[in-house]
Amino acid sequence: MAIPRTRPDRLPAILSYGFRPFFLLGSLYAGVTILIWLPLLQGRLETTSVFSPVDWHVHEMLFGYLAAVLTGFLLTAIPNWTGRLPVQGWPLLGLVLLWLAGRIAVFCSADIGWIAAALIDCAFLLAVAAAAGIEIIAGRNWRNLKVLIPVIVFGAANIAYHVEVHALGTSDIARRLGIGTAIVLIALIGGRIIPSFTRNWLARENPGRLPVPVGRFDMATIAISALALLGWSFAPDAAATAMALILAASLNTLRLARWAGDRTWRDPLVLILHVAYAFLPIGMLLAALAVLAPDAVGPAAAVHAFGVGAIGTMTLAVMVRATLGHTGQPLQAGKAGCFVFAAILIAACARIAAALGLPGGWLLDLAAGAWTAGFLGFALLYGAMLLQPRLRRG
Questions:
Q1: CA-to-CA separations, 214 to 4, 60, 188, 255, 281, in angstroms, rounded
Q2: What is the pLDDT of residues 69-92, one digit of tens each?
Q3: CB 388 within 8 A of CB 8
Q4: Scanning 40, 46, 201, 285, which has the fewest C-beta atoms within 10 Å of its C-beta?
Q5: Residues of the chain whose pLDDT is less than 70?
Q6: What angle (nearest 5°) sits at the alpha carbon of residue 158, between those of residues 152 and 160?
Q7: In the prediction, which pLDDT does 124 show?
Q8: How high is the pLDDT of residue 7?
Q9: Does residue 111 contact residue 39 with C-beta atoms inside 8 Å?
Q10: Neighbouring residues of 190: CB distance < 8 A, sequence distance ≥ 6
């Protein structure tokens, strides 16, 4: 469905739909924070945060960047579900300012106190869940209320993150819980959009084998994946967790194979979605190997397969596609899309390789540079589309 119309003469374009400010700010933040992260990691820069550099880095990638993109996606998708006008104008600006306040509060939490920082930061996802819930209920779109469950769990993981850092000095459980929740969200949302977009393109451009319709196998795969990731969050070193992760990796690999991604190589805009989803089973397998072969595979490999690979690639792929589609541009990756996709894939491969201990101290720098190029490249190449009204085709 097309998104319900707004009144472009009464609103600046950036505040007309949720994807506009949150995709733009999220991409800028993702690129800039990595530029800050390397000096922090090397001890050449300090924050005024109660978080250690590693905890700040992980928190801001999850509950800063990802929370922004998730919000942009939800606030743009919900009008399609309900037929109502999107959250826009002053309410949307309020959410944007609350997100920005959270970023400042976390960075300056040593000055304002961890409780104040936690209250400001955690208020954002609670406000997003409330806004989304109000719209879904007002539109009587009851079946999509379940989408709020992982959003609420994600918000709870953020609260746990602050509490765990305060109580123990570092995050551990909350870090994995936040990542695991994000992976379940990708399994849920990816299971909707990837076969749908693939089917549409194949039916038009490459008739033949189509994605298998979503069914009980998909629901079982998501459920088993959620349980395996829950085990990884609370008992990452248990043999039972490793076995569950191997099973989940196998099922997700089979699920991905059922979507006919091998037939989409001529369209990077569709193909990148399949590539992004492939990092789910890769991350699960690496998490299992960290238990079964700890001398060969450390826990950081799975974290970065999930974080840079699955989360980074999938969100960038969705941002490019949604920006093109909802601003009236042709759904074609073009040189700009291929550039940002190539950059994030280089970042993912280099970061996983570095985590696996492959020789070459330059791998970390390559990963950071490619990540920054991908996200700042998105902001540069697609920012004008987000700032300007939707194109009107004659």
A1: 27, 33, 11, 10, 18
A2: 999 999 998 888 888 888 899 999
A3: no
A4: 46
A5: 1-9, 360, 393-394
A6: 105
A7: 97
A8: 54
A9: no
A10: 273, 276, 277, 314
Q: What DSSP string describes 267-324?
A: -HHHHHHHHHHHHHHHHHHHHHHHHH-TTT--HHHHHHIIIIIIIIHHHHHHHHHHHH
Tokens 């123990």: give the residue. 168
Distance, in Å, from the CA atom of 133 to the CA atom of 184, rounded to the nearest integer, reads: 20
Give the chain's radius of gyration (CA, Å): 20
pLDDT tens per residue across span 46-65: 778 999 889 999 999 999 99
Measured distance between the N- and C-terminal CA atoms of the chain, rounded to whole angstroms: 20
Alpha-carbon dihedral of residues 278, 380, 104, 96, nearest 10 degrees? -90
Model pLDDT, residue 1: 46
Q: Which DSSP state fits 62?
A: I
C-alpha separations of 345 from 247, 269, 312, 341, 377 in Å:
25, 14, 9, 6, 14
